[in-house]
Design brief:
This protein is an alpha/beta fold. It has five helices and five strands, in the order E-H-E-H-E-H-E-H-E-H. A five-stranded parallel β-sheet has the order 2-1-3-4-5, sandwiched between helices. Helix 2 runs parallel beside helix 3.
Length: about 120
């Protein structure tokens, strides 16, 4: 089975490294971006099986990124997991209305991250 390619977007380099390490150990191919604008550029250049994005980032937040992805006919079926430290119910609602399929609160465990990724890739 070919490796699944995941794009991870977060403005915190430590979170990017953590998620990339967890997923790479499970044989996923992982690309990273420090902001939504870089992520949009990468999405146009390569094929990804899923997107994991932080909700709160400067320049382009996760919801705007999700809306951008879902508005692109080539990308609209890509599953998106929103990750955030925020506990605001409105943010969770906005994430789902933006096109995210799952929500992962920070801090998270490797097991919870992996189970959500495997769920969206089925």
């Amino acid at each position: 089975m070919p490796q699944k390619h995941i794009l991870v977007v977060d403005d915190d380099q430590n979170i990017l490294t953590l998620i990339k390490t967890i997923l790479s150990q499970r044989d996923f191919r992982v690309s990273t971006a420090l902001n939504g604008e870089v992520a949009v550029s990468l999405l146009k250049q390569d094929k990804f099986d899923a997107l994991i994005t932080d909700a709160m980032m400067p320049q382009m937040d996760g919801n705007t990124l999700a809306q951008t992805v879902k508005s692109d006919p080539k990308l609209k079926d890509m599953p998106i997991i929103m990750v955030t430290a925020s506990k605001e119910v409105d943010l969770v609602k906005k994430s789902f209305s933006s096109g995210c399929v799952l929500f992962l609160p920070k801090p998270f465990t490797a097991a919870s991250l992996l189970s959500l990724v495997q769920l969206v890739l089925k």
